[in-house]
Structure formats: C-alpha cells, structure tokens
Amino acid sequence: MSEEVATGERKRRARGGGGAARRAERTAPRFDSAPVIVRKTPTLDILNDEALSIIETNAETVLEEIGVVFAENPGALERWRAAGADVRGERVHIPRGLARELCRTAPSSFTHHARNPERSVEIGGNNLVFAPVYGPPFVRDLDGVRRYATIEDFRTFVKLGYMSKWVHLSGGTLCEPTDVPVNKRHLDMLHAHMTLSDKPYMGAVTDKDWAADCVEMSKILFGAEFVDQNAVMTSLVNINSPLTFDSVMMGTLETYAAANQACIVSPFIVGGAMAPVSVAGTLTQVLAEVMAGVAYSQLVRKGAPVIFGAFVTSIDMNSGAPTFGTPEATQITLGAGQLARRMGLPFRSSGAFTGSKLPDAQAGYESANSLQMGMNAGVNFMLHACGWLEGGLVSSFEKFVLDADQLGTVHKFAAGVAIDENAQAMDALREVGPGGHYLGCAHTQVNFKDAFWRSEVLDYKPYETWFEEGARDSSTLANVRVRKLLGQYEAPVMDPAVREAIEAFVARRKAEMPDAYS
Fold first, then answer.
1. 409: how many CB neighbours lie within 10 A of its CB?
2. Are 46 and 132 in contact (CB under 8 A)?
3. Which helix (H) or strand (E) covers residue 310, if one does?
4. DSSP 3-state assignment of 386?
5. Distance between CA atoms of 220 and 509, rounded to whole angstroms?
6. Is the pLDDT of residue 425 over 60?
C-alpha cells in the first residue's frame, strides 16, 4: 500500500471510525462543549470614520517612508522585491496601497477543523472562539507552589480544556514543559493535544522545522490532502515590535502559510515600550505591522488563512511592569477591532489578562475587564481566555477553571436579548398581577432551568452553609473543581492505527535529534 493510500485510509478511519471505534464512542463519557459564540450584541466602535482614515493613511506612510525590517531572511526580501517593494538592505519600504492590495486575498473567515468534526469552529464574522493560556514557563500548582512547568502539567491543562464547556480550542503552548528538551517539546505537546482532546489545536512557532513537524503530524491525523485544503491549525506568529519581522517567526509563517494553515499575525505591544504612548500612535503601528505581515503571508501562498492580531498592554511608568485591564488598552483593542473589520479580516485580541501573582481580587478585576473588552471589540479569536497569571509568566490550574467558568457569562451576554413571545412574558405578568411573586407561576416553571447563567465554581450559599463547609474562598473552590474534573477525565476515542502512526512519527523525530536545552 502506498504512503498516500495508507494516509487516506488512516484519515477515513480517524474521521469515520470502524465498528469498534463507534461502539466505544457511544459508551464513552461525553463532555459538553458549547458552540461558537455568534454575537448578537453590537461592537463598541470608539473611532469615527475620520479617525480611522487618518490612522490608515498614517500606517501606509509608515510602510512607505519608514519601512519594516525582515531580518536575516533573504527569501523574504526577494519576495518583496518581486512584488514591487523598495528593498534597502534588510528594510522593506512598501509603496502606498501595495500591502493592502495583497491582503485582499486573505479570507474573511475560515473553518478551523478539529479531529472531531463536532468541535470544528468558524473563525471570523460575528463569531467568537476561546483558546486557553499560551506560553508561560511556570505553573502555580494545586499545592500553591510556583515552579517550572512539566510535560505532566501540560497534559493536565489539555485535559481541563477538553472538559471545559465554554473553551473551544485545546490551544497551543499551555505552559513550557521544561523537563523535555527544547527541540523535542513540540512533539510531546502536539501529541497531547491530538490524543487527550478532540478540540482544535495550535502548532509550534519557535522554529520552522518544528512547525513542519506539526504539519506532518496533522497530515497523519487528518490526511495530507485534507490538510492541504483545510486549516487544522491556527498558530501564533508574533511580530517583534516595533516594525521588525525576525527570521524565526517568519520562517514559521512561511511554513504554515505554504501548507495552507492559519497564522495569527500579531504585534506584541507594550504601550510606551514597543509602541508610542498615545492610542492613535499605537494603532498606526499595529496596523502597519499587521498589513505587512498579512501581505507577506499572501506572497507565500495566496488565500492562506490569517488573523489580524493585537496583543496590547500598557506599562507602569514607575516600575516598567506591564499592566492589564487598563482604559488605554481597552481603547487600543476597540480601535484595532474596527481596523480589522475594515480590512475584512478575523480579529484576535484580549484574554483573561492579569498581572496578579495569585487568582485573587486583582486577577478577577483585571481579567473581567479584559474579557469584556474583547467581546465589545468584536474579537473573533481570543487567546489566553483562561489560566493566565503574573503577566503571562504563570499558568494556574485554579485560575484556569475560574476563567473557563466565567467564559459562560460571555456566551450568555453575547446572545443578546430575546424578544419573542416567551421572552415578553405577558402570560406571567397577567398570572401574577400586583403584589404577587413569580416563583410558582407557569412561565417560571417552564423557563427556570435556562433563565439565568449559573457558575459551576463560585459559591452562592447562605453564610451559615458556607461557614459550615469550611468558609472556602474562590481559589479553594477552584482547587476542588480541578481535582473533581481530573478525577472524571477519560480521553476521547481515537483510532488506534492513527495513534500508533503519530507515536511512531514522534519517536522517529526524537531519535533523529540530540537533546537540546537551550
């Protein structure tokens, strides 16, 4: 049997399954997964048309007059030169209108496929999808210890994401497993996403060869032809702001774009450090960087899916530390959402951001502000939606479940206000009349189960009951929730032949490389 035929056969088994797989699937425990949010609430458009036009004009000026650097990447410089840009050394000056014209071939929306088709998500339009925390080297474990993350911690986060109803993606680098060699971590991490969850996942981005491994592993899981024509990964490509595209990130973008896999082209903005202190100045730089990055993806492969990204924080001018949930970051995020919609691109921003060291009141306030900001800004892809602590240095199990629970409030709010006959509740108003109560009326009896969103973590009990149960705070309740979920976990069904093929690929690639820890 040829490799292509074998791959196709594995793909059919993975997506259709044999009789044994179907029987196992019927008897396996199922964890609810909420559908993608389709916003029925309006975005908050903070900038008028004149302001947006000024920012767009200034961004074009930045690209043409100041230019952007594509460092240590002769191939990128040649692509730009062939497209009509003025290349001077490593700096690319992009004529007015060229980048925007190239961006037009990027799709306005795309499907990010999961191995379980029921978990696939549409990114763009009025849709909002949530992905977990990404990138921290440390974890705060269930014993309250801040330490370097391990691969077992990573697997635990994958399991929690799989069981979290409101989280749509399994994510990417949920934490850095420092007990695995740097050059082999991506293999173990992607293996965990593929086998411990059936939600969509993200690929490795810090080396083009690692990105290529992710593409090859995805071909085993989905089939080579399917991967070539469909996005099965949406991966984060950060821009080295200001105005610099380093060869590592661009090598990753080139690998994924060539394979028709989605990239989030995302300036990494800490206002006052990597961008101007003003909102309009920062938005000008963000737009210039995104246009250059998206345009370059289209030079690699026309029509490759891509997302307009904006990671935005401000800076504390006394300490130099990043700050989260601030009014300025909100204004920038809202404005970036408007610019993304004018470009016709999906938008990534926001998350459950906090600078707090613990899942405490500071974390709650800052994360709530950031989540609300993202919904109002029209975000389509929200990374860091749960589990983020300490400015992104720490992934927390407790905050993961607290945040994931609160994502349910966004689902509820974004659904908008119903105004159908049942929602008008005229029968209830007539039945109860003056001076009565609604607890026992027919309308309440029919609707009470779904009338109000309810937390699965927070405590609503009377004081006496709360005290008798140990006077537990939210972190303690979250700790209990994590342990309960992990005790209930069972992996989703997977075709054994596909699993074996993935594990054989991982073993072969590891054997081909000496361990590297830096």
1. 16
2. no
3. strand 306-315
4. coil
5. 14
6. yes
